[in-house]
Design a protein that fits this description.
This protein is of the alpha/beta class. It is built from 13 helices and eleven strands. The longest helix is centred in the first third of the chain and has 16 residues.
Length: 305
């Protein structure tokens, strides 16, 4: 057994050194975070492993968007699986600002002023629905394909974004971004409107074929799964067809496993379905991603970039 060591900081420590101290401190979520970083450091260096990143939309309304964009820029992962709202926020923030707010703002007053509250982030109408309709109309008019997958659509959109964008770097580095719930967001609505009058359709089964090929082309697979929902499940769903993930790190705030939901389910439950390999190293980090991601990515960059 290793003794628990006190953490002492002098203000000059790197993120990697802080995470190392958290590991030696041996306590609670700090220990889990440090272990998750170690799993990722090893896994992201593997050359024959399909490395998957998944996350929900909400964090892209915050500064965490920049970290995900940096991950795509550095080609840390081979494929991304996300929700439709990720497209909404990533595109909108290329052209308009979101604003810092407060959890306790008067929502009725916000509504009257054309302001939408996402937690403690304020999103004006002109920074969301209005700009998305304008930009998507312009982008969709440039697409010549009559049938397109969501990952191809994401690349087409990425061509028109700036370097702050996740989609830009995924297009630049040809990292597929799969959106299995493409209709569940503003971009999905814009696609539906466009298809009323234009000969184009989105075929999500083309994404499934691509994912199947990726899974079978690689000897191993591993994933960094942020949050839950459809993006989390789509990762582990495909992993089961190749003996499950060989390593997995969950970063989540869904701490009530007893509700039986996929979002709160632990890696050990996925083992029972064959979605994570029985001997796979796993970590579950119970923390808000906007808190944990900056520290984790800073530590990972020293280890893998």
């Amino acid at each position: 057994m290793n003794p628990v060591k006190d953490i002492h900081l002098n203000g000059s420590e790197t993120a990697d050194e802080i995470v190392s101290a958290m590991n030696e401190g041996g306590g609670f979520v700090a220990k889990d975070l440090a272990f998750g970083v170690e799993i990722l450091k090893k896994g992201l260096k593997e050359t024959e492993t399909l490395k998957i990143l998944s996350f929900p939309a909400d964090i892209i309304a915050t500064g965490a968007r920049g970290i995900i964009a940096d991950m795509a820029k550095e080609k840390a992962f081979d494929v991304i699986i996300a929700t439709c709202g990720m497209l909404d926020h990533d595109i909108a923030r290329c052209f308009k600002d979101y604003y810092q707010g407060d959890w306790n703002l008067n929502d009725s007053e916000l509504y009257k002023k054309g302001l939408n509250r996402l937690g403690n982030v304020v999103v004006p109408n002109e920074s969301y629905g209005e700009i998305l309709e304008k930009k998507m109309t312009e982008i969709l008019a440039t697409i010549e394909k009559k049938e397109i997958s969501t990952h191809e659509l994401c690349w087409e959109i990425g061509k028109h974004m700036n370097e702050s964008s996740i989609l830009y770097w995924c297009w630049k580095n040809q990292i597929p971004v799969v959106i299995p719930g493409i209709t569940d967001g503003s971009i999905g609505y814009q696609l539906w409107q466009w298809m009323q009058d234009h000969d184009m359709k989105v075929n999500v089964f083309l994404d499934e074929t691509m994912l199947s090929n990726l899974v079978w082309e690689h000897k191993r697979s591993g994933a960094f799964i942020i949050g839950g929902g459809i993006s989390k499940h789509h990762v582990i769903w495909w992993a089961q067809f190749k003996n499950g993930l060989d390593w997995a790190v969950y970063l989540t705030t869904a701490a009530f496993e007893r509700d039986g939901s996929l979002s709160s389910a632990l890696p050990k439950e996925a083992v029972s379905w064959g979605k994570i390999a029985e001997d796979a190293p796993t970590a579950t980090i119970y923390c808000d991603a906007t808190v944990a991601l900056p520290l984790m990515w800073a530590a990972l960059k020293k280890g893998i970039i």
